[in-house]
From TrEMBL:
This is N-alpha-acyl-glutamine aminoacylase. Keywords: Hydrolase, Signal. Pfam families: Peptidase_M20. The keyword Signal applies. SUPFAM superfamilies: Bacterial exopeptidase dimerisation domain, Zn-dependent exopeptidases. It comes from the Bacteria. Residues 1-24 form the signal peptide.
Length: 452
């Protein structure tokens, strides 16, 4: 089923799903307090959002963003650890005995020139390592994610008489590279903070109206790999190709060979994507280069499917090199870069979360969730090596009030994440809703953990 048809089916099923939900575990009085604390912060958090939106930063280079977040968390009374994976941070609030619960927000932007038309749109350009410049913008909503992390921090601090345990808030770099979460773990995150039993993360999408949220059970986002295939040939003059082994030709053959890996190696019922996003080889017209690089991206839900793709890439690449006459000492190499496991909401946890969200927001503000997508999120890597740790993924609406009505009548969607025209409608409401919803989920997790 396509994303479009899947979204249409999800919309039609949403009302049925919401009607059967149980009531929230947290007391009504506490839920009301959370709602007020979230609403009271709206003007300040929207101000933070606009500041971040106009001043985006890429990947691991989040110095200003991280400093802003760290300063505010310290002022709230959190113990803040900075400089994790360069510009990542983790804030800890110890509040007696109980479970350790973690909430993560990603903070990085994209190398995209913004065309949203917003008065506070990013005009920023940055210089890359190779000397080139790129426009930068928050075309995926991580500015809102960063703002609601601060809002959640205040709610949890102000309600600490109602819960006990340890809260860990993570501000993560380089999600867009599918690398930041693992980099934080590798850089000693758990030497600084305790390991959680539950990790929650949330993401904004313009396909639902601002003021709504969704937690859908099952597969949400695909696992992903980023890898570089390095080709080495023998360079020479463009007029004498017979005296060379041409990596341009090897690269072209490899790109075409890779296109049949999914269609001829993966069962049709198993989702998989293999994309060659870049081919970097050669510099001028009359020189056959010595080397070239292909940049690949894989998407998958099953680890067996992932391994089949990796094995086939190795086999096809080496076969092309042998056919071209590449000597053993120059055979292709593969460098594995970013990796993330699939995002999956366990049904029991999703059902419990939805009951909490109904109590916190009301049934009308709970959406059915988008169909599974082949896009990826790396936050599960924060707990990938922790036995019995659970993850929960929350979808936050960021669209216009009539976005669903318009879609159902015309099939037209607003510009989606990573589009130059991407924008969050009513960001203050979006952030406030995320603060209220995720704070309620955290409180419910702490209360349930203590009850156990």
């Amino acid at each position: 089923m396509s994303f479009i048809n899947g979204l249409r089916s999800s919309l039609l099923a949403g009302a049925v799903m919401a009607c059967g939900l149980a009531q929230a575990a947290i007391p009504t009085s506490l839920s009301e307090k959370v709602g007020k604390l979230a609403a009271d912060q709206q003007p300040e958090l929207e101000k933070v959002f606009r500041q971040l939106h106009a001043n985006p930063e890429l990947a691991f280079d989040l110095h200003d963003t991280s400093a802003l977040v760290a300063k505010r968390l310290k002022k709230l009374g959190y113990q803040v650890h900075t400089g994790i994976a360069e510009t990542g941070l983790a804030a800890v609030l110890k509040n007696g005995d109980g479970p350790v619960i973690m909430f993560r927000s990603d903070m990085d932007a994209l190398p995209v020139k913004e065309e949203s038309g917003l008065s506070y749109a990013s005009k920023k350009q940055v210089e890359l390592d190779d000397g080139s410049t790129r426009y930068v913008s928050h075309a995926c909503g991580h500015d809102s994610h960063t703002a609601w992390l601060l809002g959640i921090a205040k709610v949890m601090m102000e309600t600490r008489d109602a819960w006990s345990g340890t809260l860990v808030l993570v501000g993560q770099p380089a999600e867009e590279l599918i690398a930041g979460a693992q980099a934080m773990v590798d850089d000693g995150l758990y030497d600084k903070v305790p390991k959680p039993s539950l990790l929650i993360s949330a993401h904004v999408y313009p396909v639902w109206p601002a003021g709504t949220v969704a937690v859908k059970a099952g597969r949400r986002m695909a696992g992903s790999d980023q890898l570089d295939v390095h080709l080495t040939g023998i360079g020479g003059h463009g007029s004498r190709p017979e005296g060379t082994i041409d990596p341009v030709v090897m690269g072209a053959r490899a790109v075409m060979a890779y296109q049949t890996i999914v269609s001829r190696n993966i069962p049709a019922q198993d989702p998989a994507v293999l994309t060659v996003g870049a081919m970097q080889v050669g510099e001028t017209h009359n020189v056959i280069p010595e080397t070239g690089t292909l940049k690949l991206n894989l998407r998958w839900f099953d680890k067996g499917v992932r391994q089949t793709m990796l094995d086939a890439i190795e086999r096809e690449t080496q076969g092309i090199a042998v056919a071209a006459g590449v000597p053993e000492e120059r055979k292709p190499t593969i460098t594995m870069l970013g990796y993330a496991e699939p995002v999956i909401n366990e049904p029991a946890l999703a059902e419990k979360a939805n009951a909490t969200l109904v109590g916190a927001l009301g049934k009308k503000r709970i959406m059915p969730g988008i169909p599974p997508v082949m896009g990826s999120e790396d936050f599960p890597m924060l707990v990938a090596g922790i036995d019995d740790a659970e993850t929960l993924f929350v979808e936050v609406g960021g669209g216009a009030p009539d976005v669903m009505k318009k879609y159902m009548s015309t099939g037209e969607l607003p510009p989606l994440n990573h589009n130059p025209k991407f924008r969050i409608e009513n960001p203050g409401l979006v952030i406030t809703t995320a603060v209220q919803a995720n704070s309620a989920l955290l409180l419910d997790a702490f209360l349930a953990g203590n009850a156990d």
